[in-house]
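Action item from last week, closing it out:
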Amino acid sequence: MDRIDRKILALFQGDTRRIAAEIGDAVGLSAAAVQRRLKRLREIGAIRKEIAMLDPAMSGVPITCVVTLGLIAHAAPHQQIDRFKRDMQAAPEIQQCYHVTGTMDFVLVVTARSMEDYAAFARVWFESNTTVARYDTHVVLERVKVGLEVPIASSG
């Protein structure tokens, strides 16, 4: 990727509905050239997905919890971790799942329609899971900043 690709990515990720001509004006290219570059950036995986960011409350899932979770160490920890990752990918309530360093093994962002629904989710996925040693739930009081934008370096 060159400097122009990075500028295109920086503009595009903030608003994927921005038209190619507008991006082209900002980077000094034609709309067609921007469209070709965006196509290539999708093909090489620099653009993984284009999504709509929904309002959780208006979508019926106003509860967000950040969960830190530790697994029990077994004789085959890699299989255990891989299975847990697959389970978390399959759970629609989980927005994000990070395998991390430190005193816990995972950090999860979980959504729910109510605290009762979250409690039921935790019973199934954490409390009944024989590989989970412990978990802590932090209920989000306010969504101060939410996003997936990646800071784009202009050089390189």
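Closing note: The chain has two domains: 3-43, 63-139.
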